[in-house]
């Protein structure tokens, strides 16, 4: 299988971390690219040109990190990071959704700020920062679930999202008002799967 990633993509990092947690990274041919340059092989694999993108052994392509993670979790050996059913599954999916919402807002703000100054929308950036600010208290209250998820897909997703905040939005002092979340991140971020995928 071929997995297209970008070095600083938090979405790709989540997928790579999942493969490492399952000790199955060697099953993937990881191709690091710059999606902003519209590489032909990426565009031929997935029309959106977004990473991560997975080309399966059967030759078809999956996009979107949540879909790729679910697929790999099902076919790769090792422990399941997204439970099959029941309360544990819903907990992990809820955490993943919280992380996705925060990541989408954080990434959107970064992209907007990279536009030429006269084309930027400060109102749009403010809207994304407000979404981040609303997401963090929800994550703080979910800290018991993060521990219970035991480095599952939900917890890995939240860790990647928070670390992306530190990477791209270092001016946001989110730890002061969310100490339990900060303590949880300090504990999980040293896992080998997250250390190895740190884009810094």
UniProtKB/TrEMBL annotation:
Top-rank lineage group of the source organism: Bacteria
UniProt-listed Gene3D superfamilies: 1.20.1050.10, Glutaredoxin
Every GST N-terminal domain range: 1-80
Entry GO terms, CC: cytoplasm
InterPro entries listed in its UniProt record: Glutathione-S-Trfase_C_sf, Glutathione_S-Trfase_N, GST_Omega/HSP26, Thioredoxin-like_sf
SUPFAM superfamilies: GST C-terminal domain-like, Thioredoxin-like
Identification of the protein by name: GST N-terminal domain-containing protein
Native source organism of the sequence: Niveispirillum lacus
């Amino acid at each position: 299988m071929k997995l297209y990633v970008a070095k600083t993509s938090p979405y790709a990092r989540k997928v790579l971390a999942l493969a490492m947690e399952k000790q199955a990274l060697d099953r993937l041919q990881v191709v690091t690219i710059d999606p902003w340059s519209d590489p032909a092989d990426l565009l031929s694999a997935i029309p959106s040109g977004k990473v991560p993108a997975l080309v399966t052994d059967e030759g078809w392509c999956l996009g979107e990190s949540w879909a790729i993670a679910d697929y790999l979790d099902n076919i790769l050996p090792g422990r399941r990071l997204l439970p099959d059913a029941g309360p544990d599954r819903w907990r992990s999916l809820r955490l993943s959704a919280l992380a996705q919402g925060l990541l989408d807002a954080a990434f959107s703000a970064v992209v907007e700020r990279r536009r030429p100054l006269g084309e930027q929308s400060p109102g749009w950036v403010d809207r994304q920062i407000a979404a981040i600010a609303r997401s963090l208290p929800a994550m703080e209250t979910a800290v018991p679930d993060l521990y219970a998820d035991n480095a599952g897909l939900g917890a890995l997703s939240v860790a990647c999202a928070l670390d992306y905040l530190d990477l791209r939005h270092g001016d946001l002092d989110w730890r002061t008002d969310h100490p339990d979340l900060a303590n949880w991140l300090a504990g999980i971020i040293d896992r080998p799967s997250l250390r190895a995928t740190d884009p810094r």
